[in-house]
Amino acid sequence: MSKDIQSSAAKILEGIGGAGNIKFLTCCATRLRFELNDNSIVDKAALDAIPEVMGCVPQSGERYQIVVGGGVATMHSALQLLLEQSKASGSADNTKTETKAAASNDDVKASLRSSGVRGKVAWVDGFFEYLSDSFRPILGILLGASLIIALCAVLDALHIVDFRGDKSAGWVFVDSMWHSVFYFLPIMVAYNASKKLKVDPWLGAAIMGALMTPDFQKLTSLASTSSIKDATLGTVSHVAHVFGLPMQLNDYSGNVFVPLIMVAVLALVYRFLKKIIPENLHMVFVPFLSLIIMIPLTAFLIGPLGVWIGTYLGLGLAWLNTHAPFVFAILIPLLYPFLVPLGLHWPLNALMLMNIQTLGYDFIQGPMGVWNFACFGATAGVLLISLREKDATMRQTASGALAAGLFGGISEPSLYGIHLRFKKVYPRLLAGCLAGGVTLAVLSSMYGSVKTQAFAFTSLLTIPVFHPMWIYAVSIAVAFVVPMILIVLFDYRTAEEKAEHKE
């Protein structure tokens, strides 16, 4: 670990209010995520001055996020080391926390919260934190799997390997490399969601895993199981009769709605059991009774409900995409710039996965890619201006954010490091979203809408997974170029911001 990282970690720790102000620390793909004793003592100006910090996001419930980009794991490790050293030496600096906490009041906290992107309603924040924290720890493997899919798509496009026909054992094995991630995704989501709600994460994983065992799947082939054809979806559903009760059987591989609902109910059951069972019996009877209660409840009720919710939300969007494709192709890119900062895009991500599971393809990721590349184009414009003005600080921020976007499909470094800091960026960004969306809508109306059979992070590397590929490529190119040119020509700062930035 470099001395620069150690020094920056120490400055972050000081700016956040010292070790004594930190209740909990974790990280996601680009952000350090703190739960603090007191948000009001955070020195935002000091944090913004640290080179690795791309932005700060105060939130409700004494939560705080610091955007540091792709090096977040290293910075998190450095901070954890400092916290462990502080705890071991007993030298956690609580003086600053206690002094300023006494001076703080509700007006100060309200001001801080209103300065963040989110944070006015605690339960809303909590809901979307639950959604996002259920996915964030597995973003890396989702990205890795999507790149394997992209590689296969390139080989298929070049007619090197036919991934639609009969494949050799070797290429079937390659399929398992990415398919494993999406097949067992419900178990991973259940684990993360349980951890978020302070339930034994292995308990959540085991309950979800019970619905994915060969024994559960075997129920579909029993003589007593009846089959029903859904005319709307064109699928066949199976109903088993378990102890005289009808149980709808579903393929839960790749499903994310079911584990999210199941864990929310499990948390209530888990806490109730811990309350009524003597503490010395927790280890045996809390997991035992949780399994006995939650597996049947999930199989009979929560599972079918989760599948129904996800399926019909997807069908609703599919209806809009079919009957008003022009509106859909423009609406999604224009919505995403407002959904992502609020964390409201996670339900749409879940719908993408559900579409692939139920329909065999997804139609949301194409328009979403338009937004992403408009975002990256705005960052490229800022980078060109920083090169022209020889602005080393902004050049470092923009180049890191652009690399994370173009090769990883991650928009947060651009969003929090640049776009939300300067008032003129969003109008140029939205112009790119509109131009790319209109391009996608016009071309799709003539040659067919853009679809993908894989959940892919929309980066340069995953362009081949979209079909028709050329329509998608032209649309994201337009979305990228328009904001870049607008920012180069008309800047991304107001006169006041430009003067302040130069100082």
Automatic annotation (TrEMBL):
Keyword Ligase listed? The answer is: no
Q: Which residues form the active site?
A: C28
Classify the source by domain of life: Bacteria
A Gene Ontology biological process noted in the UniProt record is: phosphoenolpyruvate-dependent sugar phosphotransferase system
- Cite the PTS EIIC type-1 domain residue spans from the record: 129-503
List membrane-spanning regions: 138-158, 170-191, 256-273, 285-310, 316-339, 370-387, 429-450, 470-492
Principal location class: membrane
The Gene Ontology CC terms held by the record are: plasma membrane
Ordered alphabetically, the record's keywords are: Cell membrane, Kinase, Membrane, Phosphotransferase system, Sugar transport, Transferase, Transmembrane, Transmembrane helix, Transport
| UniProt-listed PROSITE patterns | PTS_EIIB_TYPE_1, PTS_EIIB_TYPE_1_CYS, PTS_EIIC_TYPE_1
PTS EIIB type-1 domain location, by residue?
6-89
Name listed for the protein in its UniProt record: PTS system beta-glucoside-specific EIIBCA component
